[in-house]
Design brief:
Length: 182
């Protein structure tokens, strides 16, 4: 099961990393949604049920943001708040009702990361979004290290963090070059 989990996680990581190099928000969201599908299965095979459900909620988040982006409209704040509330409620349901108190104090970092991803994905400006998404990346890396999750989880978020910075630099250099030419 661990190898299967790792394989799904590796595919998700490749999709996530690729998404940051699109200057088109719709393509970015599409790659993120597909990556979330693979990551959900990865967490399922690890037995990390809350994280699996949280990532699955990320697919719904992606669909919502993609739909609004396609219509060239902002995601309403109530939708972002609803996604955050559903994430928190699923956390309580899974960790306190179904698994009878398997929660960790560090889980709050993952809850913050999940809510920050909802806020970040709703941003229309993809350049600004690349900067802001670094915050939930740091929360996710910290969470995975603190709960002693398989090191591959922290490493994959770390790689995604680095790739995001590379994309920020790439698009900044590209913009400066375009500004000089214009």
């Amino acid at each position: 099961m661990e190898q299967l989990s790792f394989s799904f996680s590796a595919i998700a990581l490749a999709l996530y990393c690729g998404s940051y190099f699109f200057d088109n928000k719709k393509k970015y969201l599409l790659f993120q949604m597909i990556g979330n599908g693979f990551l959900s299965f990865s967490y399922l095979f690890m037995g990390a049920y809350f994280t699996m459900v949280s990532v699955a909620i990320g697919i719904v988040r992606g669909v919502i943001c993609y739909t609004y982006e396609k219509k060239n409209r902002n995601v309403p704040i109530y939708m972002i708040a609803t996604l955050c509330a559903v994430t928190i409620l699923s956390y309580i349901l899974i960790n306190y009702v179904i698994l009878s108190g398997s929660a960790s104090a560090w889980d709050v970092l993952y809850l913050i990361a999940s809510c920050m991803y909802a806020i970040t994905f709703a941003m229309r400006n993809i350049r600004l979004m690349r900067y802001v998404v670094l915050i939930p990346h740091v929360c996710a890396i910290s969470y995975n290290l603190l709960v002693k999750a398989p090191i591959s989880s922290a490493v994959s978020y770390g790689i995604e963090f680095i790739i995001t910075i590379v994309a920020i630099v790439k698009f900044s250099v590209q913009k400066k070059h375009q500004d000089r030419v214009a």
